[in-house]
Amino acid sequence: MCRSGKGGRGSMHMHRAKYVPNGGPDGGDGGRGGHVYLRGNRNYWTLLHLRYERHIFAGHGGNGGKNGSHGADGEDRYIDVPCGTVVYDAETGRFICDVTEDGQVVMLLKGGRGGLGNKHFATATNQAPRFAQPGEPMQQLTVIMELKMLADVGLVGFPNAGKSTLVGAISSAHPKIAGYPFTTLEPSVGVVSYHDNRSFVIADIPGIIEGASEGKGLGLRFLRHIERNALLLFMVPGDTDDIRHDYEVLLNELTTYNPELLAKQRILAITKADLLDDELIEMLERDLPSDLPHIFISAVTGFCIPQLKDLLWRHLDTDDRQQAHSSAIAHRDKDITFLHDEMADEGEDEDIIILDDEDIEDIEDLDSEEAEIIDD
Questions:
Q1: What is the CA radius of gyration of the chain?
Q2: What are the domain boundaries of the chain?
């Protein structure tokens, strides 16, 4: 839960000094409440440092004083997050913001403005106003933060499609490779070297099964990483019964999860081509989608791996690659009905605290020092 600071109230003070009768109003303004910011930090790779800091409270603004003294501004709070962090409203699931660059600062909550002192309200007909403005109230928001990998190419395929093998073959990454399904239990990223010291980033996520968009298997927890990729590489084994059907099943899962993913560039790679001869490859090509670029590869033998790199680079190398990559990000609003299921899967369900209205009112009445004590 994040909370900005409330603005300090203006002072209702009359000037008092020796030999100065009827000094008039001199109440100062209240200070503004502290803001809550998100700040990208490339030194962080996970959100683990926020696990035990569930409440972020900014400082309240100080009250105005006599002689036109301005109240102190509340202390701002900066939340350092790794690049690739996406923030959602925990109550509605609405997408709020995205932090993608190191040093990028996003205001999450704005502190309340301080109230004006009574000196601002003196007029010819009301020369001694005995009122001042209160400060604006604080803002409070419960947010969900998710880390989505920053990668150019995302691998999409069923378990045992050869995704980890391909990442290990074309990059310096060393993902776990075994002969059973769901070998990859967490996403992995590899940097692929290309000609003339150029490179791009490829991301491997756990295998997707039919129904992953509804929570089956591991897909729901990791499909969000695909939303940030500029290019999707669909991988279907060449020894499957129907390559076109498997591709359509994968595409349907992505479409069900987020329809905006259809706007991304797609390439189909038929893996394990070392098990196929030229005649069989020619026969299989007739049933492949005609509007989709495809290539037969074998990560084990290196068959057509250089051609795959060329194909990926041609689709990634645009006139303004950075702008194209940013426009390819497709964030969907979060379905909070899955929140408890996801937290339970990660073993954090016991850490979820539900506050009622009375609890929130009690928290709002605390000053910043008391709030820090409770937070500790």
A1: 28
A2: 2-147+346-375, 153-332
pLDDT of amino acid 338: 56
- In degrees, rounded to 5, the angle at the alpha carbon of residue 201 between the alpha carbons of residues 195 and 203 is 140
Query: Can you say whether the dihedral through the CA atoms of 303, 197, 322, 333 is positive or negative?
Result: positive
With beta carbons less than 8 A apart as the criterion, state whether 205 and 217 touch: no
| Virtual torsion, Cα 329, 330, 332, 338, nearest 10 deg | -70
- Per-residue pLDDT of 217-248, as tens digits, reads 455 556 666 777 788 899 888 888 888 888 88
- Taking the C-alpha atoms of residue 79 and residue 131, their distance in angstroms, rounded to an integer, is 37
Instruction: Tell me 317's DSSP state.
Output: -
**Which of 257, 262, 264, 221 lies closest to 333 in space, CA to CA?**
257
Pairwise pLDDT comparison (198 vs 312), residue with the higher score = 312
Q: pLDDT tens digits, residue range 51-87? A: 888 899 999 999 999 989 999 999 999 999 988 888 9
- Here the tokens at position 28 are 């100062």
Residue 185 to residue 204: CA distance in whole angstroms? 10
Contacts of 281 (CB under 8 A, 6+ apart): 238, 273, 296
Tokens 């994040």 correspond to 2
CATH class of the domain whose range is 2-147+346-375: mainly beta
Give the whole-angstrom CA distance, residue 183 versus residue 158: 11
Hey, is 253 helix, strand or coil?
Answer: helix
Provide the token pair at 236.
């279907």
Q: Given this chain, do its domains 2-147+346-375 and 153-332 carry the same CATH topology?
A: no
Residue type at position 31: G
Taking phi first (over 0 means left), then psi (-120 to 50 degrees means alpha), and beta for anything else, what does residue 363 get? alpha
Q: Which helix (H) or strand (E) holds 327?
A: helix 321-327
- pTM of the full structure: 0.61
Token pair belonging to 213 = 């968009």
In angstroms, the CA 292 to CA 305 distance is 18
Q: What is 153-332's CATH topology?
A: Rossmann fold (3.40.50)
CB atoms within 10 A of CB 172: 10
